[in-house]
């Protein structure tokens, strides 16, 4: 009811408030190209289709996105941010996180700092490694937030 795509083959899924969708669908033909919060982006990896949460939606769906969300130690999160442009091997992370990742299927996930859950980012869980999926702009914001946490 609240998730919309422009077409059946669209690569983006948006969340649209009921009032906005009612206005768009209930009146004269409106020329609206796009509206709402981009929540998922379609990703095809080796012929398999996944829907990765967008950076814009992080935190918005925390109560619904639970099976692929990990609360991790700040040291592991910092390691991922420092190596955000490359794959990070499972064995370079804490033993508990390593074990959890070994049991996860390949695909998108969200990591949050255990003691500061508002600090989060997308990752791609692969075979034996993680690829942080964070833009340069978001990386700067996350690094600043981590520094503030370390100061407290």
From TrEMBL:
It comes from the Eukaryota. GO terms for biological process: RNA methylation. GO terms for molecular function: RNA methyltransferase activity. This is Uncharacterized protein. It comes from Phytophthora nicotianae P10297. The lineage of its organism: Eukaryota, Sar, Stramenopiles, Oomycota, Peronosporomycetes.
